[in-house]
Structures are given as structure tokens and as C-alpha cells.
Amino acid sequence: xxxxxxxxxxxxxxCPLKHRFQYIDKIPPPWRPAALVFGSSVHAAVEWFHRxxxxxxxPEPEAVAKIFDADWFAQNLEPVVxxxxxxxxxxxxxxxxxxxxxxxxxxxTMPLLTEDRFEIDxxxxxxxxVFDIRLRGVIDLVEADGTLVELKTAARTFDTGSLxxxxxxSTYALVRFLATGTVPPLRIDALLKTKVPRLVHxxxxxxxxxxxxxxxxxxxxxLAIRAGCCFPNPSYRCTECEYxxxxxxxxx
Length: 252
Ligand code: SF4
Description:
This protein has helices spanning 6-14, 16-24, 34-54, 61-75, 88-106, 160-164, 167-180, 208-226, 244-249, and strands at 4-5, 32-33, 80-81, 111-123, 130-143, 148-154, 186-192, 198-204. By secondary structure, it is an alpha/beta fold. The chain has 2 domains: 1-21 and 112-226 and 237-252, no CATH class; 31-108, no CATH class. Strands 1, 4, 5, 6, 7 and 8 form a 6-stranded mixed β-sheet that branches. A hairpin with a 4-residue loop joins strand 5 and strand 6. It starts with a strand and ends with a helix. Iron/sulfur cluster (SF4) binds next to helix 2 and helix 9. Iron/sulfur cluster is lined by residues 15, 17-18, 232-234, 237-238, 241, 243-244, 247.
């Protein structure tokens, strides 16, 4: 089996049938939800901002907003479905606001790394058991003190339970622990698409027990994929599922 990405694990947990359409059948999505595309464009602009700074340059907010514009334009060349109160223009304006806010509030701290890629053998940190699973992913930002940061664009902030169970944070902490023997500080930086945009910093912690639980969860997902367990998991998310039409045709 090819290395398992964190996003693939997340997709399987959301809906095993969607995972099959996307990762096994490799069906191109007929459209994409605007919220996903929007988050990707904001992410592209923020990544460029940090890369410029790491190269010794200090881009103005307008320059970062132009990167957002270019990515947003390119992504909208493919079919995008907008929520009732959103449009391409409304989200373009919101993107400018969020990116400018991020640049204004983040210029004081310099990251150590941006888009830090990893690929490791999955190991249970409590027992030392090595699984026959390669795990890969990308950490958005690593700060000078070792804090691992995940950037999110969201409609509202994260509650405590969501932070404690956030799979990407748990996996990044596991990967760092396996490499260094230390559980790193973690944080989600959430750009909120509220009426008045906000950037909130949400620190999180993990214990070694949490990391062992995460390793076993990923092992369970990998075993289920190998066994071909791909069934639908209907939920409120179906309304924004790109594979809804394919799902209606599904008969096992
Ligand atoms: S429509 Fe719902 S149940 Fe069907 S594949 Fe998509 S998320 Fe899964």
C-alpha cells in the first residue's frame, strides 16, 4: 500500500465510501465546495508570505492579497459550488480581508519552517510496535520554539473537544515525538470568516497516551482500507459531498 496521508485517513473517517471514490476509484470530483477552494487559496497566499519572509523579504499585504487573487481565479476555472449566501465576489473580498489580517498580525514572529513534509513508519509510542504502514503529511508551520502550527480557515472557532481530538494536530505531535522523543507544543491558527474577520490562536497539548491512541486509530484505518471496507456514512456533510451523485448509484 502506498504511504497513507493524514488527509486520506481523515477522509476515510468522514466517509469510507467517499474515500473509495476519491482514493481508490480516483474519480475526478465533478465540482468542489467553495469553502474548500477558499481555504486552499488563503493557504496558498499565507504559504507564499512565509516563504518570502524566510527568503529575507517582507511582502506588503497587497502583494500577499494578489497571490490569493491569482489562486482564487485559477481555482474558479473549475466548477465550484457556493453556499446560499456566498459568491465568488463575496469570498474574494473576504479572502483579501483575512489575508491582510494574517499579514498584519503575523509579521512579528518568524517561522523556522513552512510546509514541513514528513514520511515515517508508523510506530506505537507506548509499546514500540512498528506497523507495516508508511505515514506522510505536511506541517503548515514550525516555529522557532518547536511549536507545530496548523492554519485553518473556518466559519467559527474550535471548541475544546474539537481541539483535543484534532487528528492533524495529534498526528503531527506523534510524528515529532517519534523523531525527537519529545511531545511538541501545538497550535491551530484559525482565520475566521466572521462578519469582522478574526485570527485566533488555539494552543493544544497531547500526552503520550493520546499519541498511542492516534497511532492505533491510523492502524485501524489502514487495516480497514486494506480489507476493502468502503461503506457510506451519511451525515450533514452529504450536502457538500462532491460524490453525492455517485453515492446514489452505489449498491455495494
Ligand atoms: S454523499 Fe454522504 S454517504 Fe455518500 S459518499 Fe458522500 S459523504 Fe459518503
